[in-house]
Specification:
By secondary structure, the chain is of the alpha+beta class. The chain has two domains: 30 residues; 77 residues. The protein contains four helices and four strands, in the order αααββαββ. It has a four-stranded antiparallel beta sheet with strand order 1-2-3-4, with helices on one face. Strand 3 and strand 4 form a beta hairpin. The longest helix has 24 residues.
């Protein structure tokens, strides 16, 4: 009986460890975004200067790892929540300014290099 319990305990610990490792290998660990990651994702879907306001909104709707903090007729502020994954890492901010319904300025930056006080938009 003791041998059966020991074998069961060993089997349980081995299966538990392998399923945890496969979850990590399967990509369930959240990603810390860098400026180049955000730039690449925006370019892949064609977001650039002169893209429409609606196309940028649709990008954020289809990419849930970004949080839209401020969205008006004239500008949009969103962020990649890196600090939620690792408190030592800064969030990255995406700021877009619209003119005539199209992007006239698009900036991706950490808060310390942002032109305005972008973190104040994201409470």
């Amino acid at each position: 009986m003791k041998g059966s319990l020991l074998a069961l305990a060993v089997l349980f610990s081995v299966c538990g460890c392998s399923s945890k490792q496969s979850a990590i290998a399967g990509g369930s660990v959240p990603k810390i975004y860098e400026l180049s990651d955000i730039d690449k994702e925006l370019k892949e879907v064609g977001i650039q200067l002169e893209s429409t306001r609606e196309s940028l909104r649709n990008f954020f709707k289809s990419h849930p790892h970004y949080e839209v903090c401020h969205d008006t007729e004239v500008n949009l502020v969103a962020r990649a929540r890196n600090s939620k994954i690792d408190p030592k890492v800064h969030d990255l901010y995406i700021s877009a300014v619209y003119r005539d319904g199209k992007i006239s300025n698009l900036d991706i930056s950490p808060p310390e290099f942002s032109a305005g006080n972008l973190p104040s938009y994201c409470h």
